[in-house]
Amino acid sequence: KEWLKDVDKFSLQNSLKDLDKAYKNFFSGKGYPKFKSKKDNRKSYRTNYTNNNIEFLDKWIKVPKLGKLKIRDKLKPQGRILSATITQVPSRKYYISLCCTDIEVKKLESTNKNIGIDLGIKDFAITSDEAIIENPKYLQKSLNKLAILQRKLSRKSKGSSNRNKARIKVARLFEKISNQREDFLQKLSTMLIKEYNIICMEDLQVKNMVRNHKLARSIVDV
């Protein structure tokens, strides 16, 4: 069909490959395919690198069909680009993730130090050398604002533009909380791998723990 020419061919090919892989996993007993709805507020597609069709240009990135896109991240990708995934998240923001290979990884110096980590609920973790890592509780700190935004959302008429605006405000707050957690974990994990050679952690069944409704919010906020 004529309109198919307006779409990046690699995105169509990758969608078919993902579908094929999902059914192969299903028939081998690994899980049921997850069907995607057009009503889903998270959308993405993947395109492949060929003939310099994906190119990083300082404050811009060039991708097939979309051309040059202005980006906020100034961190230049390392290595050789294999593919790019463009994602729209519920807050209506767009992200592009690059999959690269042939990256030179610097080896960390040995510290000859080992550590054990016990995850908690009140505190984020306690280490074997008795250091306490406090739980930042980002969700708990935003609960009042979240409750106000969710009440406003519930009062809007379904399908209206005002409801969509209210939904985006809720999504952006959830995104902020998620980003705060991600930043905390990245900084903590970076510190640990630089300081210690061996890191031991207990094997917790978090999914089962969340079933306890009295502890669920505290566990999720860790």
Automatic annotation (TrEMBL):
InterPro entries according to UniProt: Transposase (IPR001959)
Stretch forming the signal peptide: none
Domain Probable transposase IS891/IS1136/IS1341 span(s) in chain numbering: 100-212
The protein's name: Transposase
UniProt feature coiled coil, ranges: none
Pfam families tied to this protein: OrfB_IS605 (PF01385)
